[in-house]
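General statements about sequence and structure are easier to judge against a single worked case. In the encoding step, the backbone of a single protein was reduced to a row of integers, each denoting a local shape. The record that follows shows the chain in one-letter code together with its fold in token form.
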Amino acid sequence: MESPNLPSWTTKKDRISVLEQDRALLSLMTTIRDVNTSDREFSSAVEKVVRRLITSALNHVPAEEYTITTPINTTYTGVRFTKGVCGVSILRAGACMEQALRDTWTGPLSFGKLLIQRDEETGIAKIYYSKLPASIPNDIVLLLEPMLATGGSVIKAVETLTANGVPEDSIVLVNVVSSQKGLDVVSGRFPGLKIVAAAVDMELTAQNYISPGLGDFGDRYYGTCS
């Protein structure tokens, strides 16, 4: 039975991982959350956090032992990955995570795009644009979405990926800040999904903003705050 004193994600560590909350990360997260941080400082700090997230997420790509010969004619047994990676951005904010994936992953790589917005009348997330590579069912898919609040957009994204032949357990959500509610909803709906986050916030406001959160991620990253 789950302890009532622990966040539910801590009982699912095989599927949900949160980056080590070391001082380097906490310093970056402090910069990201600060209302007085400029757009350029915000994007610079985000990119450093995302690189750590991508590195952690790539641990979910399957690998096999691989022996090579070193320059001094001795052998070394390491690993090589056995699958390619596809990064799928939930637009617009998710696109800011693509460059870190390009810089970090050295194997076969492709990208897809999803535009998901909530219908103002029904409150239901809808797909407005989807462009996915034909090879995506064979890859490990990193679903790039910086903020996980209620989980509606992520649920629609995962439904779209699985409808296009991607196994649920081949999808890794890469996320900067999750709400506890969002983690519960998404992990409950998709038990095979993996999630890698930099932070988990316990509260949502009445308007479903993550609290303490960091504001509108896309506006702050792209400098479009009013």
Observations:
- The longest helix spans residues 39-57.
